[in-house]
Amino acid sequence: MPICIQNDLPVKNTLLEEGVIVIEENRAKNQDIRPLNILILNLMPKKEETERQLLRLLGNSPIQIKVEFLHVATHQAKNTANSYLKKFYTTFDQIKDKFYDALIITGAPIEHLEFEEVNYWKELQSIFEWSKTHVFSTLNICWAAQASLYHHFGIKKEQVDAKIFGVFEHDVLIENHSLTRGFTNSFLAPHSRHTKIEEEKLSTVPELDVLARSEDVGTLLLATKDLRKIFITGHIEYEADTLQNEYLRDKNSNLPIEVPYNYYPNDDDTKTPQNTWRGVAYLFYHNWINQVYQLTPYDLKELAK
């Protein structure tokens, strides 16, 4: 089934070229079906790149999905024109009375700041609280996962000595969980972060299940038992060259950066990196969407009861 997006969203043509099935809003309105309504709060600087990464994964589903994009009003974007945001994005004040099957909150390159120092922290806290009664399942990625764990459960983030950067092996910890169904016992996934969560605190929160973990870099995937809150500390949505672009950006700026671990063939940064996590990314998003479809109420207003 197709993914429903705005008619003239720029990344649409790229998705079509890749074979992702896309349906325009006008056609979707004439179909007698209720799609899954997914809101994406995009906190990343390069909005279109993140849109493409997430829409590609959401589009690999047998369920029709309608996507809306949200940006924070209390932060002035430096890398995206206001005209683009006005045309393709909405603000929290505009959608706070609406209900959604799912919400995705992306990462953000602000790990050096304490949460309370982030200029849109209060707005994000309002969105976290709103999601409890207006969203069935929220997927938090990287910095957003750390922020959500801190807000909801008091689990702090900690700085690491060297950036966690590369593609690492992870083990599935709970067999036959709905989110990791079909995963191999161990799998690869990329990370790009300067902080980690308080691993020792996770076991003190009975609502949380740790689903996948790496001996090298800690927990990757965890979720509440009711699947209302899901956390990914890495970036399985990344494209093959995303880590390379980050690496070259820092290297060319003379910032301290190591070659991404287990990323380039033979750790040779002159060679073309391969995407070794694509299958896991597609499978995870397929599993998540399927669970949302199975569990979310048909009338989303029931979430507020």
TrEMBL record:
Site (Important for substrate specificity): 192
Catalytic residues of the enzyme: 142 (acyl-thioester intermediate), 235 (proton acceptor), 237
Pathway: Amino-acid biosynthesis; L-methionine biosynthesis via de novo pathway; O-acetyl-L-homoserine from L-homoserine: step 1/1
Sites where the protein binds substrate: 163, 192, 249
The reaction(s) this protein catalyses: L-homoserine + acetyl-CoA = O-acetyl-L-homoserine + CoA
Positions bearing the site annotation: Important for acyl-CoA specificity: 111
Keywords noted in UniProt: Acyltransferase, Amino-acid biosynthesis, Cytoplasm, Methionine biosynthesis, Transferase
Keyword Phosphoprotein: no
EC number per UniProt: 2.3.1.31
Pfam families documented for this protein: HTS (PF04204)
GO molecular function list: homoserine O-succinyltransferase activity
Top-level EC class as recorded in UniProt: transferase
Cell compartments where the protein resides: Cytoplasm
Free-text function comment from the UniProt entry: Transfers an acetyl group from acetyl-CoA to L-homoserine, forming acetyl-L-homoserine.
Recorded family membership: Belongs to the MetA family.
Protein's name in the database: Homoserine O-acetyltransferase
Organism: Gemella sanguinis
Gene: metA
